[in-house]
Queue: 2 jobs
Job 1
Amino acid sequence: MRTVGVVVWCLFLLAAGVRGDANLPDLGPMVISVFPLGARQAETLDVEILGRNLDGTRDITFARPDIQAQVLSSSFFSVKARISVGPKAPVGLHDYRLRTPRGTHVGVFHVGSLPRLNEVEPNNDLKHAQTIVLPVMVDGVVENDDYDVFRFHAEAGQTLVFDVMATRAGSRLDSTIMILDERGAELDFIDDYYIHKDPYLSFAVKKTGDYFVRVAAATEPIATLLDGSRYSSYRLVAGAVPHMLHVLPAGARRGATSEIRIAGLNLQNVDRVILGESLAEGKVVASAADSLTVRMSVPATLAPGRYPLRAFAGSFEAPLQIQMVVSDLEEKLATPARSRGNPQSITFPVALSGVFDQKKARDFFAFDVRAGERLVFDVDSMKLGFLDDPLVAVYTPDGKLLASHDDRLQQNGDEPPNLDSYLVYTFEKAGRYIAMIRDCAERGNPNYVYRLAIYPGQPDFDLKSLTPELTLFRGRTVPLPVRVRRFGGWSTPVEVWVENLPRGVTSEKMTAEPKDTIVKDNCALDRQLDGTNVDLPLHIAADAPAGDYSIRLHARGVMDGKLVEHTAEILYWWEHVGKVTGAVEEQKLIATVTDLPAVVFESPESLPVAPGKVARLRVQVRRYDDGKSPLRIEPENPVEGVKFENNELAPGVVTAELKLTASGSFKPGWFKLRSGSSVSPPIELKVKTSQEDEQ
Amino acid sequence: MTVRDLILALAVAAPIVAAPSEKPKLSFVKDIVPIFTKSGCANSNCHGSIRGQAGFKLSLFGYEPDLDYDAIVKAQDGRRINRTDPAKSLILMKPTFSTPHGGGERFNVASLEYEAILDWIKDGATYDSAGSPRLKTIRVTPEEVTLVSLGSKQQLSISGTYTDGSTEDITRKVQYSANDESVLDVSPNGEISAKRAGETAIMVRTLGKAVAARIAVIETPPMKDYPQVSRNNFIDELVFSKLKRVNIVPSALSSDREFVRRIYLDTIGLLPTLDESARFLASPDPQKRAKLIDELTDRPEFAEVWATRFSDLLRVGLYDQRSKGGRLMYSWLRKAMLEDKPYNQFATELLTASGNLYFNPTSNFYYITEFSEPDNIATNVSQVFLGVRIECARCHNHPWEKWTQEDFWGFAAFFGRMGVKDTYENDESEITLKPAGEVISPKTKKRVDPKYLDGANEKEQLDEDVREKLATWITAPENPWFARAIVNRVFKHYMGRGIVEPLDDFRVTNPPTNEALLDALARDFVAHGYHLKHTIRLILNSRAYQLSSVPNDTNRADTLNYSRYYVRRLLAEELIDSMSAVTGVTESIPGYMPGTRAMTIPQGAPTYFLQTFGRLKAREVICERDNSPDVAQAMHLISGQTIQNQITGKDGTLDRWLADKSLTDEEITRRLFMATLVHPPTDREIAQVIAAVQGGGANANARRQAFEDVLWTIFNSKAFTFNH
């Protein structure tokens, strides 16, 4: 547990540092886990939110009105809340914003359609397995060296879906699923299925009987936190439920009716497929267990983007969704054309959907261009949730490589990557050319779907706020991180500024140069971001009124004499929500104006103390006063039976090592340190065990 | 006889050399270089080492005469050759120890070697003219011989064939060495003399060529009354005919009790349960052994044993931080074995693997080094799938084989486009195929085309993954190594010794102990669709496998020819899994669900017990487990925590039996013996146990303790810790 604590602090400190000004602390709320990770439709349940800086939580508000939350209690490390989910709340992840006086936090909460229960310990092995009845959602926590084993009954011929939602819902757990037979022999196992380590498998039952499903952490020694801890919550979805695996084409044209084909499991009873929250209604024209054919009309008014596709069997909604693109492009299927000598002839603009269904699968497309024509080859795959790693290339008909592109954003040890390709190429000569798309590692799988959009490149850019939450300290300058990404050959600077600032807060315009930012990864290697990072400085006056304010971001640029202006899309602050990526549900950037304490403590969560012996409490101190006078650190309230010494810190010293001597009568419990008006996070004083003695 | 006379004499023996009337000029390549090979100067521990010795470097075993010529004649301003006074040449004074020499005297001034070098210097110390013939092959006669009686002798004869088609007797120009010097001696001139009964090979090499002669020594002439031994399949035909040739009578057939314990441990890594052994022993079915073999090889535990074997071989989990990938790969191996995936397909999937280590199990095959360097991959692939060690040729031509640096780097070039890319998370890597990639020879500094071992060059075409062609070549029925290498591995697993040892050292100078058997197994394996299970069942059904481990007078010393079952210490996993299965006490392995069997752990050795008994913490190199007993193992069995937990653990089988009023102490004793050793206790053993149990009076704890002592004794016995 000690190691886990250290890692949690590392996450916390990392988050504080990434904001740009390493001198300022992150005192905004940070949620590390929610248990249960979600609710069922029409359910009210109590949840426990664990993290840091959660004391004084004022409220939790969901982006949708049919999910309500009531804060029951809060402390520095946790919040207890009651959440009520409306009966029509769509299955999937929904945003909440937790608000404290020092900032806000946007996180996600899952809503499911299946009966729900919590895991009950001990269920660590087959002898103590918890019995469940399928279909079901089980919410659990994988502690360190913990195995959650469930016994279930299955009938021959069933196809069971097992899906663990953890990282996709903001949990830090790297989970695995194992299916075992009644004797305990392993029948199937999966570790990573989705891109950020969540597992999924389908299990075809050959013999009626009892089986076990085991949820456990992956053994991954360098990522201790992922190995299971009290923060490692998960949701197991299990049962012979309708399950969609992919849809082809992977996109639909707005203002048109198209026929789509969905591949999956247990689909025979699905009678309705809709896009988003009834944004487009699909009519099932044919169904089988493994496929659906659906005719869907997409309104012309629907904004281009990615939307969840939801399937219903009567009133029952399939517990998991897939993504679909809406655009103005004509959507076509790749034939497939697997040979360079026999490519699929296309005219652009067009979006082509295909599958790298076998190893070395590669699709070739032939097209004609005019001299000087600039084309964009824009691939969606990872962004749709698939695991292929596309690579796109352009050739002359005789096989000469003109250009290729692999990843839009390679992993850089910081934010989640984007392995989808994006190639812009200007053809010098008119003529016929070949585009090729393949998996970078030449792998194949029936669900390695790609959507390759080919269209004339119109120079453009977008602006993203990298966080939906920001704490502004009075009397300080706080950076707001944003990113400008260029498309279609945009090559001029972009001006970025912030609007709707509260009274007492000012900022200035910044310029994003047309050059992608380079960052150093964990191995000190240069990694190119998929755009230009800009820190917008926000200057907060000492008398700026405290409170929460919604602020807006804008960007403007000129290219080829054309003025282009955009407002920012607000993204999750990924360090705060694990691997949840993309745009937040309610497009608001909330800035909280508050005071910066004179002293900020970074202290351990607990301290083991042996009666009659000396314990040393190491505390990092960050000073925001003038720092010229010595600092005296004392317990906020006297701790019975414990004497504190060595508690004066000279100016310039940043680490205090307090000497604590506990008498035989000391009482374990929580205490805080104080220096002036500044107090530390709570520290638990525990009786030292003999095992800790040995360590 | 002068050197010239000797050369002339040899030339007369060889029909296609210059006429005797012409005074032959000594050839540097044919006559001088072999002297340095034969005298040991060009050995790897002398001037043939990669950096040479004391500033003088020769090519290893004379592989590269042009370099040797430069080293002798040109290097250091030619000071090794004294053209004015040839006898004062360093190249003569050093090996004759006329001047201080770290290598001592290699030949004396009266030797033919001395004279040859002296004459060559006197003749101008020239290099062979362009296009002069080079040694192409060498041949030893006889290739295989059996020496009857100790002290008997045999002269080997070596002939060399040159690139111009000429041949020459080079018996006195080559270097000889016995692979096992305890069996026979070999003189510098190729005469062998028998020292003890046994078998070995004589390695013969010169100028980068090497061959071997297989020699068997028997003490007495072949038996006239050699017994008739029944045969179950062709394995028995070939094993028993060899045994007859070397005067060894196989042991008797194993008893049903011996067999049932052995076959369970060998196939599924577990002891038979009481029910399983009772059912087998009671069955009157004459086919019961074959049926049990079929049943066991269909069990998932059988797949787990082989998944563990392959995990050792493929170095699963070499890097701790890639443990997720290791787990995936183990699962893939297990599934492949469950499905009895044809081995050619198995190999092809590994050889053409790519993708993220955490999503694509087979890609972990290539993650034996952090950056998937082509040369490391080439070494690994040849060793794993061909049983051939080419690594020496990375830096210099192979000392005991024909592999040159060109061969090595050509093979490495099949992997020139491979790369590693970091992908989804900090710690995730993906094996990719770069759009372009090449391998540069460190010797020529030029790009190398892919080249099959002992084969042609290959060209990678547009849109092609040349590894696919390599996989096709490796897994082809006509590949000389692929099928032989895997059947040899399988054979060793069950028979205790490979037909070629070490398993990954196939070379002409390390011949199989029973070539006909190896060939027949490989042919049969290919003919039956590369199914490992077929070959495994074939071996298990052979009488050779089912022989008793008890030796007779003729086969006590035999360790090569499968004349009896070779006892082996149980693997770490087999030991702990068997103990736990017998006691019913759940074994907890850190990082794994309580009750997880050790055989199903994909990588690492997370307990002291597993480490002590030979499971590797990190599979850093391809090598077999060290399965030899040692003191630490003995101590751990005597007083280690693992065995204590197993014996004293509560709620296990012993508690259940002790609580069962219908079971007498004698019956419990019988059960303990049968569950562990698969034979009933003797009357004396029963009496001793009963005395110990009753010595504690009516005290339940004392009774339990007495049975714990019985278990402890059994677990510490060789009868338990060995398969026999």
Job 2
Amino acid sequence: MPIAAALKVLVVDDQNSVRQMTRITLEQIGVRHIHEAENGVQAMDTASTQPLDLIISDYNMPEMDGMELLRSVRGHPAARRIPFILVTGRGDRELVVKAAQAGANNYVVKPFTADILKTKIEQVVGRLS
Amino acid sequence: MTTLDQLKNTFFDECSEALQQIEGGLTDIRQGNGSDDTINAVFRSVHSVKGGAGIFGFDSLVGFAHVFETVLDAMRDGTLAPSPDIVDVLLPANDVLTDLISMSRAGEAIPADYGHESRAALERLLGKTEGDDHDGGDPAPADFEGLDFMPVMADQMDDMAGGPADGKQTYRIAFQPQPEMLRRGSEPLSIIRELQKLGTLTLTAETGKIPPLNEIEHDRPYVTWTGTLATEASREQIEEIFEFVAECEVEIALDQPVAPEPAPMPVAFAAPPAAEPPVASLPVHQAPSVAPVAPTPSIEPAEAAARPAVQKAAATTMRVEVEKIDRVVNMVGELVIAQAMLGQIVHNLPEDTSSRLTQILDEVIHHTRELKDSVMSMRAQAIGAVFQRMPRLVRELATKTGKKVQLEMHGENTEVDRSIIERLGDPLTHIIRNSIDHGIESPAARAAAGKNEEGTICLSAEHRGGRIVVEVRDDGGGIDPDRVLKKAREKGLVSPDAVLTEDEINNLIFMPGFSTAETISDISGRGVGMDVVRRNIQDVGGRITIKSERGRGMTLQLALPLTLAVMDGMVIKVSHETYVLPMSAIVECLRPSRSDIHNLVGGRGLLQLRGNLVPVVHLSDLLDMGVDNSESDERVVIIADAGDGTRLGIIVDELLGHQQVVVKSMEESYGAVPGVAGATILGNGRVALILDVEKLSELAVTQSYSFTGGRSRASEPALAS
């Protein structure tokens, strides 16, 4: 059973406010190690150099969007095993299907509560304690 | 302020940026300059607003943004072709979005049907009828039905991307502690321990260099280490370990598998040679592990090479709190003062000691100047931030007044100091209101005058002669001098028998209490007149000038300083007083011969300058210092530009030099003193007043008007301290 406090999570979103809210939500779940990246390039940098247990990435970002990031992560030798949750907007069903095909492990629809996020994370990494 | 409030603020700041993006993008699309990228960027901005609004619980905002976004999405995938008609729906939609954001920010209750029309127009674009259920208002479904992800555990994912690697790479590491290392207290063992933490470490000690026992120095390392490290860590992480021990030769190389390591003497994790010189048998603390076979994917080096370039692109901007930059600005200011003091000391030293110092000081001055410029450029913002609000204003006012107005903007990228940008919004808004309300005529009147029915307001900004010049030009009716004069007489602003030039009449609109509108409209009649506009501009050290051509339009020109904190000044001396004149106002300095100056009464004169006559005045007279200027032989004349192109020669005793000065405001303590722009601290630690050339020029004019033969001008403030 993974321990929430030991999970190392990378939050990717170009909007600082959303990133911080996600951080707060994660902290409510008990996650203590939170990395942040404001775009795909930064995210790749972190994912390829830091030990991570989970990436939670927004889809809608300039330069490199969440899908492109997902593909880069899956193609990177050091990062490709990191579980990936894509954050999407409402009505993006098609996108979620594509994300699943590209190797995403789950998705979460904005806006999300701590409970929803926890459920999604647990579906990916196993029940948190 | 709670964290949540702070986050909301951050969100609203992001919204402002998004709105600018949207407005700019839509304008581009409307003018036919839009590309797919433009639509994408606009879409992304609206989407960001929606996403954030959802998170922070601004539901009305989410609902509207959703419909807006859906239209943009349709444009993105080509279902809707971008046409001016569509943009004409989108621009007002952006206005509604702007309103919703500002209402949300202010915490105001948003009427349920706010922006209803715009929303309906958007929905019509999507082919929906108004009664349709729009999904925007629905609560967000947290799940898409029927979509299930496998609960994928990290270790089950190996086959997902293909390839057998376990993510580890093997590095070949060789390091040789240098003699200084032990003497400085660093020890090789700690490096080995750190390396061990990163993965599977196999090290071999090369003991060949250990001398015979009697030659061993106890604080010299003789052992060199080579081996491999199989790790998921990056090269940087490995290098970091060695970073703190400079006295160590290190080689780290990504290894093609050299497995299993042929280890002639696999002594891993030995005790440090310092503590126990290597005569002793090297104790094995841990069995050496076999280096794992980890074929390194060949893409890695290529990727590593490509990454820095991408990284560079990503790191082009970052957010810094204004407060932090302001602190740097202040420090630069203090630095400039300290430097001036240092300069003074150096100046007073005997030449043999000072020459080298002067050289270095020059360099310091040069760097300080660059530092100042860099910091100022950090504070600078594109004036577009203010301009962005204007298209909407023009659209709204045009609709309200039933006039047709087109807004042209130039030079949006001109950079101006933040503090000025902040105070430019209101005056500009007011000027444009005035232009549309009073300047631009109704379509019928324009047609009758043979003009295009659509009036044009041109808003432009450019750097000109060390200042920023912002111009608002319209092709309306211009100022009607007769009406203005009549009004001014009615209000008692001008005496009935005064004869005024057209220029003087035009400038009457800047008088407090002047308003020509026959009826107070809700557009420009807000109790704020052009006098307030002028005061606002003057408060930031700017000037406003007006040019009007009856029947053809008018131009208001704002000349603003680049920055308010530090400026280039000319230090001058008059009698025993030292003053600073802003360099930006100085055209030239000269030492004319007596015969070039034609003296008039009261110490005034005219200077013959390359065929032109320039009025000259003694600064001491202007400031009423009570100095006798009758023997004015060895005097310097500074030709200054009063801002509107008129020249004034200012006679001073001495030029002390050109210097950067830090502007310290005196208004808080002394109120506004005409002719004084502020004060500064000079190199000798003394305070000098910074003069306002424009005001001096005005003083020169009014004083000569009121000249009555003596030097008694009690009404003028005495500035000599």
